[in-house]
Design goal:
This protein is of the alpha/beta class. The protein has a domain of 102 residues: Lambda Exonuclease, Chain A (Alpha-Beta Complex). The protein is 45% helix and 12% strand. Strands 1, 2, 3, 4, 5 and 6 form a six-stranded mixed beta sheet that branches. Helix 3 packs parallel to helix 5, helix 4 runs antiparallel to helix 5 and helix 7 crosses helix 8. The protein is extended, with a radius of gyration of 30 Å.
Length: 353
């Protein structure tokens, strides 16, 4: 018996869940993850660093997009960075007071990483951030000057395969006009000059500075905010060719989909160890369960948003129809009035009595 039908079928996702809306063609993935329309892999320092640490972790985080656990340290750093951006992002070169800087922290405080902590622990992090910024304010008082830029976003092409994206915390200019790159760090341990000089991140920021402003910086620095120490190195101490090479090699590996497991000392803190094939004791549900929950939550939000969208579309359509009807009715009334006073096409308007 032939049961075929020409009736349209409901589009579904990979796990046979019905799609709630027709997705515009331009929103459908047409290329592998991380690869742009020009065939370049979009990388950042964090992505390159993650791949160097463990290619499989890179895949789980940036290709498979598995969710990570909230991290207090990340939210702490984001909050302090946000306060300092506000501190320097001003039109007039008047130094904000310490109270203003602490006010910026209050306004920029990010709660995401602290949701699993009790109130006392959250308050301890907040007090620590306040102390860090108080010390920073004392350190720069009297030497405050507006930078060239804060959070300077860049899209930096490297080689034929990669584009590095990111933002530089601060770009300063000295009295001679030379540019100086500063990146904030909120970890407690200070790196020595040799490690700062070997920082892939700072080398990439130096290249990005040239891309944005036409000149390489005279120096780059890591400002370790918690201990209150800034370590600065001259441009000639950086290995810019190595930075280009590392980025290009990472892009080549991503295009080849090379994601081997690389067990190392950081595995105990990895969000994806439960699904990693490098470990015998695995609990796929621990990580995949979080991903499934994320999918379900997004579908519920999408359902509500689509319902609101459809109701709004219907309301707008009703109003448009009413306005169109009113316009037609007004036109008919105007035409009738013209006929009644003899000025319309039915009469000439002449009185030949």
């Amino acid at each position: 018996m032939d049961t075929s039908t020409d009736a349209p079928t409901t589009p579904t996702t990979a796990d046979d869940q019905p799609l709630l809306v027709d997705v515009p063609a331009e929103l459908e993935p047409e290329r592998p993850p991380l690869v742009d329309a020009d065939g370049r892999v979009r990388l950042s320092f964090s992505r390159v660093d993650t791949y160097d640490n463990c290619p499989r972790k890179f895949r789980y985080r940036y290709v498979d997009r598995l969710p990570s656990r909230p991290a207090p340290a990340l939210s702490f750093g984001t909050s302090v960075h946000g306060a300092l951006e506000r501190f320097y992002d001003r039109k007039l070169p008047q130094e904000p007071s310490e109270d203003e800087l602490l006010g910026f922290l209050y306004e920029e405080w990010e709660q995401v990483g602290f949701v699993e902590l009790d109130r006392a622990e959250q308050l301890a992090y907040y007090r620590q951030a306040q102390d860090v910024l108080r010390r920073y304010h004392r350190r720069v008082t009297g030497r405050y000057r507006l930078p060239v830029a804060t959070e300077a976003w860049f899209d930096l092409p490297i080689g034929e395969r990669a584009t590095v994206v990111g933002s530089i915390d601060r770009v300063d200019a000295d009295d001679d006009g030379a540019l100086r790159v500063v990146d904030y760090k909120t970890n407690k341990r200070v790196r020595d000059r040799s490690r700062v000089a070997g920082s892939l991140q700072l080398s990439l920021y130096a290249l990005a500075c040239e891309h944005l402003y036409g000149d390489l910086p005279a120096s780059v620095a890591l400002d370790f905010l918690v201990p209150g120490v800034m370590v600065e190195v001259a441009l000639e101490d950086l290995d810019l060719d190595r930075a280009r090479r590392v980025v290009d090699e990472t892009a080549q590996a991503v295009l080849a989909q090379e994601y081997p497991t690389t067990p190392n000392r950081l595995c105990d803190w990895c969000d994806f160890r439960a699904v990693c094939p490098a470990w015998e004791e695995r609990d796929d549900g621990a990580t995949l369960g979080g991903a499934v929950l994320e999918v379900e939550q997004r579908r519920r939000r999408l359902t509500r948003d689509v319902a609101d969208l459809r109701a709004l579309e219907a309301g707008v359509q009703r109003l448009q129809d009413e306005l169109a009807d009113d316009e037609v009715a007004a036109g008919d009334a105007h035409a009738a009035a013209r006929r009644d006073d003899g000025s319309g096409p039915a009469g000439t308007g002449d009185d030949e009595g």
